[in-house]
Amino acid sequence: MANVSLAEKPLEAPIEAVRPEPRGTAALHRMIFAGLVVVLLVAPFLLYPVFLMKVLCFALFASAFNLLLGFGGLMSFGHAAYFGMASYIAAYSAKMWGLTPELAILLGTLVGTALGLVFGALAIRRQGIYFSMITLALAQMIYFFSLQAPFTGGEDGIQAVPRGYLFGVINLANDFTLYYVVAAIFLFGLGVIYRIIHSPFGQVMKAIRDNEPRAISLGYRVNQYKLLIFVLSTALASLAGATKAIVFQLASLTDVNWPMSGEVVLMTLVGGLGTVFGPMIGAAVIIAMENYLATFGAWVLVVQGVIFVVCVLAFREGIVGLIARMTKRSL
Fold it and tell me: Directed axis angle between helix 222-248 and helix 175-197, to 10°?
C-alpha cells in the first residue's frame, strides 16, 4: 500500500477531537430560528423600522466577526476595513453608476471579500497578538486611503445614496419594505454562519481553535483553514456593510475607522463569544444603548465601558453564553 503524507490529507477531512453536541440541540436551534422569524415579522409594527434595520446590519456584522474569533480563534482588530469598504463601494455604485440595490450590495460584498482575501493571506502568516496587530495596521491603511481617495468623498463621505428598486420592481424608499429585505439578508447570513459552524469544516476549525498543535500533528493544513474562515468572515461583514449603506443612504469614515472594529468586538463579547445567537443579542444591546442614551452624549461610551468591564468580570461567557451554561445547551 502506498504511503500517504499527512500533509496531503484533504481539507474537508473530519477530525475526532470535537465533542458532539447534546441530543436535542438541533431541534432547539430550529425552534429558536422559527421564533426569530416570527419576531422579525412583527417587530416593525412595534419598533421604529430604521432602528431595527441598524440592529440587523450590526447583528450580521457581529455574527461574522464571531465566526472568526469565536469559532476560528483569530482575533482581528481590523474588521471595519471590510465593513466600511463594502459600504463605500455599494454607495458609490448605487449613486454614481445607477446600479440597482441588489447589484450594489453584491458588488460591495465582492470587493470587501477580495480585500479580505488579500489581507488574510498577509496576516495569517503570524499568530496571536502579531496577527491582531497586522489586521489593525492593514485596516488603518484602508482608513487613510478612504480619507484621501476622491470617490469616497473624504470627511463628507458619500451621501444621498438612492435606495432604488429591488430587481427594478420593488421600491425600497418605503421603510417597511426595506426592513423586510434587510431581515431576509440577515436571516440568510445567519443561516450561512450556522451551516459553516455545523459543517465538517466548522468542526475542524473548532479543533484548531482548541488545540492547533494537535491539528497540525494530524496533518491538517491549518493555515488554509484559517485563511478560508477569515475570508468567509470578511464576506459576511462586507454584506452587512453594503446593506447598511443602502439602508442609511450614507457611507462615511465612521464605518471604516478603528472604533468600529472595537465596537463589533464589544457586541460579540457582550452577547456571547463562540455562541450562534449571542452576537445578535450583543448588537441589539449596544445599538439600543447608543440610540436611547444619545442624549448623554459622550457619556454613552463610558456606560459601554462599564458594561464591558462588568461582562468580563461577572460573566465572561456573555449574555447568551451564561444562559447556555445555566441550561447546559449549546446556543
Answer: 170
Using DSSP bridges, classify how beta strands 165-166 and 158-159 pair: parallel, antiparallel or unpaired. unpaired
Question: Identity (one letter) of the amino acid at 129?
Answer: I
* DSSP codes joined into one string, 175-236: HHHHHHHHHHHHHHHHHHHHHHHTSHHHHHHHHHHH-HHHHHHTT--HHHHHHHHHHHHHHH
Render pLDDT for 54-111 as a digit per residue (tens, 0 to 9).
999 999 999 999 999 988 889 999 999 999 999 999 999 999 998 999 999 999 999 9
Distance CA 81, CA 77 (A): 10
Dist CA 318 CA 325 (whole Å): 10
Provide the residue type at 224 as one letter: Q
For cell 496531503, name the residue. Answer: 8
Helix (H) or strand (E) holding 97: none
For residue 249 the three cell numbers come to 443612504
Q: Is the dihedral of CA 219, 222, 228, 232 positive or negative?
A: positive
Q: Cα 126–129–132 angle (5° rounding)?
A: 75
Q: Is 171 left (phi over 0), alpha (psi -120 to 50) or beta?
A: beta
Q: At 62, list the grid cell.
A: 457581529
Q: How many whole angstroms separate alpha carbon 136 and alpha carbon 249? A: 27
Contact 271, 62 (CB under 8 A): yes
* Whether the model pTM is above 0.70: yes
